[in-house]
Design a protein that fits this description.
Elements lengths: L4 E5 L4 H16 L3 E6 L13 E5 L8 H26 L3 E4 L6 H9 L4 E5 L6 H6 L5 E4 L11 E4 L6 H6 L12 E6 L5 H13 L3 H4 L2 E6 L5 H10 L3 E5 L5 H7 L2 E4 L3 H10 L3 E3 L9 H11 L3 E3 L7 H12 L2 H14 L4 H13 L9 E4 H5 L1
Parallel strand pairs: 1-2, 1-4, 2-3, 4-5, 5-6, 6-7, 8-9, 8-11, 9-10, 11-12, 12-13
Antiparallel strand pairs: 7-14
Helix pairs in contact: 1-14, 2-3, 6-8, 6-12, 10-13
Length: 377
């Protein structure tokens, strides 16, 4: 007997591709056949050890002006026809779309071919592509308690998958910094790290000497900002490690007493899977300001403190950090709340949801399905 096929549609950034890869691994482990339908930006998927068929179709972001929009429509039309052909050949039991315009042609084609569709939304506000595609879907798998822009869509709380290194560190207990080194982890993300590179070193340099002397700071910076940040830390004798990229983020996150970072969906999924308190400074130019919505959700849950960049100063950030580091119990409470908010089982929950949709499995305790109003309550 041939294995049932689950098709995935994703492309572009790692924020869309990684959850798709995590789901693919979970489905393959359950004996399902998985097909990935992506665009030219999809890149490598899962490595050679992951048995997934990969198909590429045309896709494009919405262009500006009349000519840009015409080019976008043309690309989507071609991608739609290509995706229809792929789906006709595969005959999948269900399709999961992971947002972004790379998924649009395939989700549209799946709707036309009556293939059950589940969308996955990583953020607390429905992405633009997912908003356009929501009518074609039977449900939307989400990572936050409520999701703006979802209307009356059926939401399935699954979480956002995290990398294996985070899962391995998820049981590391949090020990508030009552004595000894105070480990601060600063992650700027791929966009907008300059603001953190300018604000955080100055803020930490203003801390009282008894706190400053205990700091061990690990900070991600853009290459052009490294020397400026390093100079501040050296002048104030703060122990520091600076780089443009860290390979061992799961280890660093597990060791951190406090994180200062942006609030992209992947960052928050990792922070909450391990359970670490954070000061969140959302990237202010993110689409639909979704990072602020992400941060606000975790702040309401008690796992973080939201500090909008527009109103942030070196002094206000320094005061906040000082207040937290002199109140270890507040850090411990936030760590517990963050841990409660997150999950390491998002990929399994997502696999449960898509198999229920496809009629291939019964609920075994995975994600829960409910209306937007019920999720938000």
């Amino acid at each position: 007997m041939s294995r049932a096929v689950i098709a995935l549609a994703a492309g572009g950034t790692g924020g869309h591709m990684f959850p798709a890869e995590a789901l693919a691994r979970a489905l393959v482990a359950r004996g399902l056949k998985v097909a990935m339908i992506t665009d030219s930006r999809g890149g490598a998927f899962g490595g050679e050890e992951l048995d997934v068929d990969i198909f590429r179709v045309r896709a494009a972001m919405v262009g500006k002006g009349l000519l840009g929009k015409l080019k976008t429509a043309w690309a989507i039309a071609i991608g739609y026809l290509q995706a229809r052909g792929v789906l006709k050949r595969l005959k999948p039991a269900a399709l999961v779309g992971f947002g972004g315009y790379a998924s649009a042609p395939t989700v549209l084609a799946a709707g036309a071919r009556k293939v059950p569709v589940l969308l996955h939304e990583q953020n607390a506000i429905l992405g633009r592509a997912n908003r356009l595609l929501a009518r074609r879907a039977s449900g939307i798998a989400v990572a936050f308690p409520s999701v703006g822009g979802a209307g009356d869509a059926t939401l399935v709380k699954t979480g956002n998958p995290v990398r294996p290194g985070i899962v391995e560190r998820a049981d590391t207990p949090y020990a508030p910094p009552e004595s000894g080194p105070i480990r601060i982890l600063v992650l700027g993300g791929s966009q907008g790290a300059r603001a953190l590179s300018e604000l955080v070193p100055g803020a930490l340099a203003k801390l009282p000497e008894d706190i400053r002397g205990r700091l061990v700071v690990t900070q991600q910076c853009r290459s052009e900002d490294l020397q400026t940040a390093r100079t501040v830390y050296e002048e104030t004798q703060i122990v520091h490690q600076l780089d443009t990229f860290f390979q061992d983020v799961p280890k660093l996150m597990a060791e951190a007493h406090l994180a200062i970072c942006r609030s992209g969906a992947s960052t928050l999924a990792e922070l909450t899977a391990i359970g670490r308190p954070a000061i969140l400074i959302p990237y202010p130019y993110a689409a639909d300001d979704h990072q602020t919505a992400n941060a606000a959700a975790l702040e309401v849950a008690g796992g973080a403190w939201l500090m909008p960049q527009a109103a942030l100063t070196v002094d206000s950030l320094s005061d906040k950090v000082s207040g937290l580091l002199t109140d270890p119990e507040s850090l411990a409470r936030a760590a517990r709340a963050a841990k409660t908010f997150g999950t390491t089982k998002a990929a399994e929950n997502l696999a449960d949801a898509v198999l229920r949709l496809a009629g291939l499995a019964q609920d075994n305790g995975g994600g829960s399905s409910q209306s937007r109003q019920e999720v938000a309550a």
